[in-house]
Amino acid sequence: xxxxxxxxxxxxxxxxxxxxxxxxxxxxxxxxxxxxxxxxxxxxxxxxxxxxxxxxxxxxxxxxxxxxxxxxxxxxxxxxxxxxxxxxxxxxxxxxxxxxxxxxxxxxxxxxxxxxxxxxxxxxxxxxxxxxxxxxxxxxxxxxxxxxxxxxx
Length: 153
Fold this sequence. Notes:
This protein has about 150 residues and is an alpha+beta fold. It has 3 helices and 7 strands, in the order αββββαββαβ.
């Protein structure tokens, strides 16, 4: 985690790395912010896997989000939960995106993606990951994170 800049603000409500990791294992949806060709923001929900250092997105290669992130690899992602103010907690990452593996992914053996696909399959599919030739992996390398847990107040 040394590549992620330390949080300077709101340290009182910041999550520890262990709290962040547990939260990201539990949550199912992130919101991915990219920039389109005209410079307009584009935000979409997406499933994800966190490996302790990178956020992994499995995106349809024909999606606007995928095109945006390959063209301009700067990204912001938010994962949050809670209903009332005192329950709000979450993580925001900023960083860069890079394609990983085949684009689209057809299932050729890839040692880098084995653990990611197993984790994704377990988290969302009740077992094995399925390659459909329409999705591809994007790895987010966070350079900044901001966490909050208002339940600590």
